[in-house]
Amino acid sequence: MTNKEFINVAGILTAVWEINFDDITLNVWYEMLKDLDYKQVYFSVEKLAAALTNRITPAHIRKACAELEAERKSTADMFIIVDNAIAKYGRYRVLEALEYIKKQDEITYMIIKALGFLNVCDNKTNFLKKQLDGLYKEVMTNVENQSVLPDKLKIELAKLKNQFEENALYLKAGEEYD
């Protein structure tokens, strides 16, 4: 989302929640939301305007965008994508089929790659339907939770995780760490 697009969103926020956007506040809100798609933010803010009665925060908008994305996708779409990949590439052109799936939906790609494309081909989709449905929901929840976090926070969390893992390795080896 560009700065000019966010100004349109800020107009709605000002009108509905009476937020006073000075230059600093506008920049802070923009920094927290700029990685999101403008149309999703716009529709999410409109949706929140109809339902949210208390003060709004960037976290509300990020969560609403993630929910909007989740509503757009379903496990039924996943089965259609997999069936199309099997029909188009067969069971032996695995890399091409996986590339096709990846272009269609990243979550479906992650699941099918983890399970193995040939395993999915060998088993009837109806047989795997319940398991795939559960996996899709689980992965979608993880993706939603990740999309709520701003990019800067994700980077900081990754650094902390790496530092924690390094410290755990030192402790396991019986060494001292800083």
Task: Note down, in words, how this protein is organized.
It is a single chain. This protein has 178 residues and is mainly alpha-helical. Helix content is 81%, strand content 0%. The protein folds into two domains: 3-72; 74-178, no CATH class.
User: How would a crystallographer describe the biggest sheet?
Assistant: none
Question: Total number of β-strand segments?
Answer: 0
N- to C-terminal separation? 41 Å
Average pLDDT confidence is: 84
Strand pairing plus helix content: what structural class? mainly alpha
Rounded to the nearest angstrom, the radius of gyration is 21 Å
Count of helical stretches: 10
SSE arrangement, N to C: HHHHHHHHHH
How many structural domains are formed by the residues?
2
- Give the overall shape: globular
Q: What does the oligomeric state look like here?
A: single chain
Low-confidence stretches: none
